[in-house]
Amino acid sequence: MNRKFEIITSPHMGYCFGVMRAMRFIEQGLDSFGGAIYTLGDVIHNPLEVERLRARGVHSVQTLDEVPEGGTLVLRAHGVRPDLIDEARRRGIRILDATCPFVELSQRYVRRFAEESVPVIIIGDREHPEVRGIAGHAGGEAFVVKDAREAARITPLDRAGVVIQTTFSRSEAEEIIAALAGRVRDLEVRDTICQATEARREAMLALARDVDCLLVVGGKNSSNTIRLYHGCVDSGVPAHLVESAEDIDSDWFTAVRRIGLTTGTSTPAWIIEAVLARLDAISRESA
Ligand code: SF4
Prior knowledge:
Elements: E1 6-9, H1 17-33, E2 37-40, H2 47-55, E3 58-61, E4 72-75, H3 82-90, E5 94-97, H4 101-115, E6 120-123, H5 129-137, E7 143-145, H6 148-151, E8 157-164, H7 170-181, E9 184-189, H8 195-208, E10 213-217, H9 223-234, E11 239-242, E12 258-263, H10 269-285
Parallel strand pairs: 1-12, 2-3, 2-4, 4-5, 6-7, 6-8, 8-9, 10-11, 10-12
């Protein structure tokens, strides 16, 4: 069976700036303080990398109760509620704050709106840790809307300030803003969508025009990876989402000439290398 193909890689693959920075904090924590390092939730939305880090002493916990006094807590790129940082300090927990500067910007906007008593609207997924953290900076008073239908149902307001989850799709955010404009007289929108995810999506769409199969590598619990994958599916090109090289089924590539490869923002280089090696082996086997 002929499965010989060419692999075209996206120019935007692997860790984004914020995840790379968070991983540097982890390394710094392991080097400087030894023993165990704690993160509230997984430091990165990639199960295989989380497992690798756990073996090195990085423990994902759900609450501060699981972090011992004097322990080191790395705040992941998504950021957290400010009261949680205060509580950790009260408990004598050392904090390494790896909140992505782009998320910090959203938090700052929201604090400013709240200080001016301007109601805050966050466009995003209310269960996403970044959104929960940002809402905390509004004093817990934020409205969260995830689609235009929800936006069209919010209480009519004279004025509101809007921020957008950094990994949200721009086209969906624009629809939501249009719906909000019908409910809020004076709407102040801060465009907080991250360019890293935008650039990745645009590069994927360009790839889609040039290949006959797309492969997305990333955690199935990563919202930016899932959005990227849905974008691939919507492009009309057959697409597959894999977390590791082992997930690849060689039968996907029967009669495929060019494969486009892209990744979410939390996919480590060692997984990308393993995927490339597996694709190369499949292509060679059938040569
Ligand atoms: S996707 Fe953007 S906002 Fe999120 S961590 Fe990466 S660089 Fe920061």
